[in-house]
Amino acid sequence: MTESIVRQGRMFHNVSDSIYWLPHDDEELDRLVGQHFALKALFEGNVAKEILPTLEKGAKILDVGCGPGTWIMDLATEFPECELYGVDFCDVFPSDIRPPNVQFLHANVLERLPFDDNSFDFVNMRFFMLALRQDEWVTALKEVYRVLKPGGFFQSLEAGMMDRGNDFCLWVGGIFMNVMRERGQEPYIAFKVNELMEKANIQHIKIDKRDTYLSKPDQLNREFLWDIVNIVRSAQPFLTGPLGISPEKFPQFLQRFEHECKQPPGAQWLIAVNVGQKQC
Ligand SMILES: C[S@@+](CC[C@H](N)C(=O)[O-])C[C@H]1O[C@@H](n2cnc3c(N)ncnc32)[C@H](O)[C@@H]1O
């Protein structure tokens, strides 16, 4: 069982050395499940189109930092002939019921993953922006390179910052970025993953950037508004001090944040998928 620590009523991992700052309780796992289906709709699928032919042939796939395993189990159902593995340093993935072609393992990508060199046709890593310090990215990507087969694909999905919206949203976004920088993290890592891949010898193939419009009333944009409000809710223990808001007043602040995202000019949140390939 992953060791936990409670902060302001939420349950966080207690992995020494890790900078990851979101909780791993049921509320956060629900957010990740909701976020998965919103991302799938935004990017019109779970996998970039360049990778699909590899999966159709039957492939060995790894999801690093799989969380509750929603992406990998969804993919396993789409591609029953593939062999899939999910790893996470918190044991939040299902232990009993899962598709028969999926296995979950406890592992830390900053240490050696429990797989041989050249094992996987496809490695996925999603939402590590709050999990790695800037200088840990190359270590993690070198481990991805090691376990990828020559010709194997890498897909990374990360988000931008709250840097478009009214003054209130820009204030919240600015504080969030300051906290990331104080923790040694790069807020705009989504747009630097290409350089990091090259440092790890993974050839960058493309970036696919898609915007979400948090003031729009359609279902998908409403889901991203719900997601970003809940990310801020999950990060509460790290934000109350910098925002100058007490834990008791935080629910009121979140209501205001949600309201302000919908006000002119309308907050926007950019999300990016980077695709790379290990050279043969
Ligand atoms: C924001 S969640 C994303 C989960 C999942 N990839 C998704 O998109 O739904 C980040 C996940 O990475 C895991 N994680 C953080 N640092 C890790 C590390 N060094 N090695 C393995 N997993 C890690 C966390 O426990 C968490 O489940």
From TrEMBL:
Keyword Membrane: no
Keywords assigned by UniProt, alphabetized: Methyltransferase, Transferase
Pfam families for this protein: Methyltransf_25
GO BP annotations, alphabetical order: methylation
Protein origin, superkingdom: Eukaryota
InterPro entries in the cross-refs: Methyltransf_25 (IPR041698), SAM-dependent_MTases_sf (IPR029063)
Record has Translocase as a keyword: no
GO MF assignments: methyltransferase activity
Chain ranges of the Methyltransferase domain: 61-152
CDD domains in alphabetical order: AdoMet_MTases
Protein name: S-adenosyl-L-methionine-dependent methyltransferase
